[in-house]
Design goal:
Elements: H1 8-19, E1 22-25, H2 32-39, H3 46-65, E2 70-73, H4 79-86, E3 94-98, H5 101-110, H6 120-127, E4 137-141, H7 146-156
Bound molecules: adenosine-5'-triphosphate and magnesium ion.
């Protein structure tokens, strides 16, 4: 989890390379209406996000049913979104990638061909609710090298997973 440009997709791929787990990128599960909105620079409403989160939750459910360990890249900015992802899915554990805004801006400005304009960053930080004590997971500084971020997640991820 984390705001845009924190490295969710990059970390997911590197982690999957290390652990051999299945992956899904939340970005790929947005309905077309959401993609169009984001392309036009308009922030999504909670009503827009609902079918998207339900699609991700259903993917998680399929992996759980198959007892297949998996990694999902998903911003999951608000507690209610995370609760929706966890509902009925006891194995869910969150890694919040934490990156200073200035680092994100420089990353996003360098990135080409991505549908989320940098102007949305401010609204993402406004929306972000960090993990609460009763939520499973940890916050991880993610402005360093990818390999170190992956090490940190592997070190903390519950052993049963
Ligand atoms: N640890 C890192 N060090 C340096 N650059 C990074 C790191 N992690 C990611 N990046 C770069 O930052 C940019 C954003 O990374 P990425 O696309 O993985 O973020 P994201 O959280 O998936 O973003 P979005 O929410 O927009 O999908 C990419 O260009 C990526 O190569
Ligand atoms: Mg991504």
């Amino acid at each position: 989890m984390g705001v845009m440009g924190t490295g969710k997709t990059s970390v997911m791929k590197a982690l999957a390379g290390r652990l051999g787990w299945a992956t899904a990128d939340g970005d790929d599960l947005h309905p077309p209406e959401n993609v169009a909105k984001m392309r036009s620079g308009e922030p999504l409403t909670d009503a827009d996000r609902r079918p998207w989160l339900e699609a991700i939750a259903s993917w998680i459910g399929e992996r759980e049913t198959a007892s297949e360990p998996a990694i999902v890249a998903c911003s999951a900015l608000r507690r209610t979104y995370r609760d929706l992802l966890r509902r009925g899915h006891p194995s869910v554990w969150f890694a919040h990638l934490v990156v200073p805004p200035a680092v994100i801006v420089s990353r996003v400005e360098r990135r080409q061909g991505h549908y989320m304009p940098p102007a949305l960053l401010a609204s993402q930080f406004e929306t972000l609710e960090t993990l609460e004590p009763d939520e499973p997971g940890i916050a991880i500084p993610a402005d360093g090298p990818l390999g170190e971020i992956v090490n940190e997640i592997v070190r903390h991820v519950p052993r049963s997973m």
